[in-house]
Amino acid sequence: MKIGIAGTGGIGYASAAWLAHAGHEVKVWSPGGQGAAALRDAPLQAEGVLQASVRVGVAADAADLARDAEVLLIAVPVNGHKNVMDQLLPHLRSGQTVIVSSMASLSALYLYEQARQRGADITVAGFGTTVLTARRSGPAQVRIMTRRSELGVATLPAARSEQALALCRTLFGELFVPQANCLAATLTNINPVAHGPLALFNWTRIERAENWPQYHYMTPTVAGVILKLDAERLALASAFGLQVRTIEEHFAKSFGTTTPTLAEIAAELHAKRGGPPGPTDINTRFLAEDMPYGLAFCEVLGAMAGVPTPATRTLVQMASMVLDRDLAAENDLIAALGLRGETLAGLQKRVSA
């Protein structure tokens, strides 16, 4: 298949390597400009769970990426979703499938509704998290740490769920399971729940750029705060008639953990993997992305559904104080989707279209 990937960070590179190694014709685009420049002259080298050297194309812009692609995969940080989607929208055509990996703040719904308004009958598949975990290790190198054992996928329109599921399995394997809708996929993502406390309670380590293995520092106290956030996430899902797995179940499905409590799971992962290292940049996505597009989004859902979210609100306020920024105001999808004026029933109808 002809596949276009928007994004040249760790997930973009890892996905490109995985798909090209499987025989697909892959082209990547760096929305920031020069992120893929090295791939014009050199093969993409993957190490870790995939050892491969593959050739991938480099698109000049969004139009070039979308022109011949049968499938597009958006693999940029969530704070870049709207911008990248807005650049792609004029070039999307009926029949294409766009995979959003991974979705947050209902970014897949934004893309689908905007495309429909433009007359493009596309299919959008949203992942709750990424298929692979990976980090770029050089201009044309990527280290792929993990391929998840199970991953939910939600489809717009809902009637194309089986086709989208089959496509995802063709591209990445049999790990996919269907989810009720894209709100379920959004609320499945546990990153904001885990990343916020990890970053805030290890902030001095981040400021001093220390090497800190994050699971080792998911201490019982930090794990306890994470569980309070997770309880609010689960309550939100229930209010919308959805059932999503707990954070402990997430780790068991993603990484094969066997211990029951979150603190024990963190210790188990540290013993097995020794990492990954925690962030060392004060602009870490753990706050800059996961707070506005994860927890602040959940606050809006809570107001819509009448579900109290005091722990979620506190974490967003703490992160905003630490960074001296209004993180909730940085989410550009809440207003674009009209969520503050939406009702529970209205949103349920939209995500199940």
TrEMBL record:
Span of domain Opine dehydrogenase: 179-322
Origin: domain of life: Bacteria
Pfam families: ApbA (PF02558), Octopine_DH (PF02317)
Pathway(s) where this gene product acts: Cofactor biosynthesis; (R)-pantothenate biosynthesis; (R)-pantoate from 3-methyl-2-oxobutanoate: step 2/2
Keywords, ordered alphabetically: Pantothenate biosynthesis
Keyword rRNA-binding: no
Catalytic activity of the protein: (R)-pantoate + NADP(+) = 2-dehydropantoate + NADPH + H(+)
InterPro entries on file: 6-PGluconate_DH-like_C_sf (IPR008927), 6PGD_dom2 (IPR013328), KPR_N (IPR013332), NAD(P)-bd_dom_sf (IPR036291), Opine/Lysopine_DH (IPR051729), Opine_DH (IPR003421)
GO molecular function: 2-dehydropantoate 2-reductase activity
Protein name (Swiss-Prot/TrEMBL): 2-dehydropantoate 2-reductase
Organism field: Ramlibacter agri
